[in-house]
Amino acid sequence: VLRISGFVVKCLGLLLVLSGTVGVSTASAGYIMATGDETPMFYAGTPDNNVFFNSVLGTGTSVLVHETVCPACGPNLSGYYDSLPGVTSSLVSGDITAGLLSGVDLFITGLTGGPLSPGEVTALEVFLDAGGSLLFSGDYTYSVAAVNSALAALGSGLSLYGPPLDSGTWFASVLPDPLTAGVSSFQYGYAYGVSGGTPLFLR
Fold first, then answer.
1. At what angle do helices 118-129 and 144-153 cross, to 10 degrees?
2. pLDDT digit string, tens, across residues 135-170
3. How far apart are CA 139 and CA 121, in angstroms?
4. Residue 59 contacts by C-beta under 8 Å, 6 or more apart in sequence?
5. Is residue 48 within 8 Å of residue 40, measured between CB atoms?
6. In contact, 140 and 147? CB cutoff 8 Å
7. Considering the entire predicted model, what is its pTM?
8. Within the chain, which residues score under 50 in pLDDT?
9. Which residues, at least 6 apart from 16, have a Cβ–Cβ distance to it below 8 Å?
10. What are the residues whose beta carbons fall under 8 Å from the beta carbon of 177, sequence distance 6 or more?
């Protein structure tokens, strides 16, 4: 795992390294994760996608899901997290600010509203340095440019790349990592690849 100032960078959701599906990078204390597919979020409550998303949250108790591409994927993931004992999750949109991120452990965004502003980059840097974890979710060709711009601005070393692969729903190969412990299967769909970081799943 690459450590960058305070966050961990990993390839997640469907981060393709060569032919991977999810990638992660490390910041100071939290994770930066990137996925080229939101389908895993749609199946957040099913085995073993649920095990993985539990690991992503860890001991955290507060989740925000911000501007996802897939109309059902963000609500499904937020609803899953909100169903866990002691965990609260909300769907949000609009500007990313320090106030929005206050008290949040895991922030998930597809950046469908466009690229981050300089102020939003700063807010996310402070969030990561305080131990928050961040998941960027590109999907098909939507918001890929905005996600890649954000990943570069945060120094993650991750990026999404096309063309998208594997139309339909598939099960990824699971790579050993603390975030994938206990995961024997992982559903994904039409995915952009992810380069950089630590791959968690392969197509």
1. 60
2. 999 876 678 899 999 999 998 889 988 887 777 788
3. 21
4. none
5. no
6. no
7. 0.89
8. 1-7, 11-21, 28
9. 23, 36, 161, 165, 191, 192, 193, 194, 195, 199, 202, 203
10. 10, 24, 198, 200
CB 181 within 8 A of CB 38: no
Dist. CA 55–CA 84, nearest whole Å: 13
Contact of 132 with 32, CB cutoff 8 Å? no
46: DSSP letter:
S
DSSP annotation of 28 reads S
* Burial zone of 58 (CB within 10 Å; 0-12 exposed, 13-18 middle, 19+ buried): middle
Task: For 150-203, give the DSSP string.
Answer: HHHHTT---EEEEEEE--S-EEPEEPPSGGGTT----EE-SEEEEESSEEEEE-
What single-letter amino acid sits at 113?
G
Length of the chain: 203
Q: What letter does residue 142 receive in the DSSP assignment? A: B
Phi, psi for 91 (deg, rounded to 5): -95, 130
Please check whether residue 5 is in contact with residue 131, taking contact to mean a CB–CB distance below 8 angstroms.
no
CA distance 53 to 47: 10
**Parallel, antiparallel, or unpaired for β 173-174 and 198-202?**
antiparallel
Please give the backbone phi and psi of residue 200, each rounded to the nearest 5 degrees, phi first: -110, -30
